[in-house]
Each structure stands twice: as structure tokens, then as C-alpha cells.
Amino acid sequence: MCRGNKESILKMVEVFIDQIPKFINELNTAFSDNDLLKIKNEVHKIKPTVHFFGAFKLKEQLLVIDGKTVNELGEIDLKHIIKNINFYASEVINELKTDYKIN
Fold first, then answer.
1. Torsions phi, psi of 30, nearest 5?
2. Which of 51, 60, 63, 78 is the most buried (most CB within 10 A)?
3. Could you tell me the CA-to-CA distances from 8 to 2, 12, 63, 99 in Å, in that order?
4. pLDDT at res. 1
């Protein structure tokens, strides 16, 4: 996508690192509010970005939510899945910061 342009790649990584915590915050708030529709919408919005960065463990957890209807979300263990999403998102951010030497 960036055709090997290191400056563009770094900018995309920085945007990802900036946006993922905002997504996590929105997801956690929606979970606390038991807003299943917002959870589903937030996950659906971020899924392509996570896929682009190759964060497959994180993407797996997002797919569990994205593949369910709002009614089915109430039947799965959202607490466990959101805990995993938080963990994997943090792991991805830390790895990107290390790989790209970002503070």
C-alpha cells in the first residue's frame, strides 16, 4: 500500500498506534454500558485496519464479535473476548513501537 515508502509506513503505524487505544476505550465503554450494537459497530469499523497490520490474534477475537448478530452477542462471553481484545491490542501496539522505534 505504501510501496515501500518508509515515511508513509511509519505514518500509518503511528496513526494505528494512536487510533487503537481510542477504539479500545470505545469498546470498553460500550461493554460497560451493555450497548451490544455499539460493540458490534466498533468492531466492524476497526477490523480491516487490524487485518492490514497482520494482527491475526486480535483479528480472531474481533471476528467472533463481528460474525454474530446483536442478539447472539448476548449469548457469548463478551467479557472474556473483550479482555482478549484489550490484551492483544496492547501486545500489537507494543510490538509496533519496538519494531518502529516509537516512544
1. -60, -40
2. 78
3. 6, 6, 28, 15
4. 64
